[in-house]
Amino acid sequence: MHYQKLKRLISAITILMFSQLVFAQTTKIRIGTFDSRLIALAYYGSKDYGKVIADFDKDYKDATLKKDSAVIKKLLVKGPVMQRMMNDRIYGKGTINDILDHYKDKITAIAKSQNVVMAVSKWEVQYKTPGVELIDLTWKIMDIFNPSSQVIQWAKAGEKELPIKDAIFEDIN
To answer: Which parts of the chain are beta strand (E)?
Structure first.
């Protein structure tokens, strides 16, 4: 009696292992990727970023009127740092996670619509197995920012170019 139960258990485990092996070989894990440079370009050309700049300008003007040297000093450092970060994001491989954090719901909806298990910058993918399929979400994520025709034109040109190494240190105008 115990022999029959053991035999059935071994058979069940064998079938389960075989089915898992077959499933693993026929079903790929879908991971969404995006070109962070193009997403950054769309963001920096958006109304959302326009508001960031308007707020920065207002803070600077207010600090100047109040003669608040501490705030002025901080903003005089912050402005060039923001520009360097923008350069690294648009021309290099700089992270845009802090930008995307504000749009998680929209990115989640895009990822779900494309049946991917996650979304990550294509520059962060160092290795993948044959069981992983990369799905490009770049243009769908860019649409969040309602890019102008000029931004779309720049993005199409930019996607053909390789990122600039150490773009954060470059004076790009």
So the answer is: 29-34, 119-121, 132-136
Please classify residue 100 by burial: count the beta carbons closer than 10 Å to its beta carbon, then call 0-12 exposed, 13-18 middle and 19+ buried.
buried
Question: 146 φ, ψ to 5°?
Answer: 45, 60
Burial of 74 (0-12, 13-18, 19+ CB in 10 A): middle
Helix (H) / strand (E) containing 3: helix 2-26
Q: Which domains can be identified in the chain, with CATH numbers?
A: 28-169 (3.30.910)
Cβ-contact 123, 21 below 8 angstroms: no
pTM given for the model: 0.80
The residue ranges of the chain whose pLDDT is under 70 are: 1-26, 172-173
Task: Tokens for 63, please give them.
Answer: 């600090």
Dihedrals phi, psi of 51, to nearest 5 degrees: -70, -40
